[in-house]
Write a structure and sequence with these properties.
InterPro entries: DUF1731, Epimerase_deHydtase, NAD(P)-bd_dom_sf, SDR39U1
Protein name: TIGR01777 family protein
Family: Belongs to the NAD(P)-dependent epimerase/dehydratase family. SDR39U1 subfamily.
Order of helices and strands: EHEEEHEHEEHEEHEEHHHHH
Radius of gyration: 19 Å
Number of helices: 10
Number of strands: 11
Helix content: 25-40%
Strand content: 5-15%
CATH architecture: 3-Layer(aba) Sandwich
Number of domains: 1
Bound molecules: NADP nicotinamide-adenine-dinucleotide phosphate
CATH topology: Rossmann fold
CATH superfamily: NAD(P)-binding Rossmann-like Domain
Organism: Kitasatospora setae (strain ATCC 33774 / DSM 43861 / JCM 3304 / KCC A-0304 / NBRC 14216 / KM-6054) (Streptomyces setae)
Pfam families: DUF1731, Epimerase
Length: 315
Amino acid sequence: MKYVIPGGTGQVGTMLERALRADGHQVVVLTRTPTAPHHVAWDGRTLGAWAEQLDGADAVVNLAGRTVSCRYTPENLRQMMDSRVDSARVVGEAIAAAARPPRVWLQMSTATVYAHRFDAPNDEADGVIGGTEPGVPDYWEYSVRIARNWEAEQERAAVPGTRKVALRAAMVFSPDRGGVFDVLSWLVRLGLGGPVAGGRQYVSWIHERDFVRAVRFLVETEGLTGPVNLAAPNPLPQRELMRALRRANGVPVGLPATRWMAELGAFALRTDTELLLKSRRVVPGRLLDAGFAFDFPHCADAARELVARRRSGRI
Ligand SMILES: NC(=O)c1ccc[n+]([C@@H]2O[C@H](COP(=O)([O-])OP(=O)(O)OC[C@H]3O[C@@H](n4cnc5c(N)ncnc54)[C@H](OP(=O)(O)O)[C@@H]3O)[C@@H](O)[C@H]2O)c1
């Protein structure tokens, strides 16, 4: 099959491309700065010659978006919004213009669309969309708005020949350098892998192998449309996640951090505490209902496998 992956040069795209190529598929990546023969230039905003790549392709997986691992300044928030909304819109326009449109368009979204909550997990049917929960910083609402506008852009696209799925993905754990698992493991090895702000907040995650398997499953399963949660079925409180990472890395202790220390750390790492403090308790209701079985339903097993692979250099 021919896959087109707009924004496929980042952490998720790199590991998805690796897996799809291993399956024998053709992969074309749309990027603002092409550096390889299968890279095609686009600007993520306007139609151009790149759109021909979608004509006759089998599947499009749009991952484009400014990284969310940054300080949430007004300018960065604007770029986070615009890069996602604009790229989803223009991918829709390219599909609409194609004589032979792809059968399926998987559009990245995020598990952050759901409310910060502890009491119950969020699935697609009964989950609570965020933005109005009390007691959280105002700007967290903006992240939810980004996700909603991102998904709305795909919903709005008039592409009758193409099945549309929004991937409400949790953090994708892969051993790739600079990915979230790599950064968390690094903090653990520094002795800083303890609970943050008490560590009650839930963390949703998905092992890269399950992410790729879910993408294949969604491409192959006709009839599945709309939002689908891509998260392991067992999200866990942050303090338990860090314990699992410490065990996998053979590190006995991790310093706990207060909210205030987390603010300092996030500032030093040029990131934002929402990524650490928001309770994302997301479960894969639709995937499980459709018969998808996770290879890594539990975080301890996922962490052991990823650490072993990183140590052996087998990425
Ligand atoms: N990583 C995760 O665990 C995770 C979890 C849930 C959702 N997501 C979402 O999944 C997507 C991919 O994640 P990732 O971790 O692979 O992200 P990433 O490493 O930041 O890569 C995203 C890609 O988007 C492109 N991009 C950046 N700014 C852009 C802009 N202004 N206009 C058009 N393209 C732009 C970049 O490609 P070029 O520079 O080559 O153009 C970049 O390689 C992101 O939208 C992210 O929010 C990620």
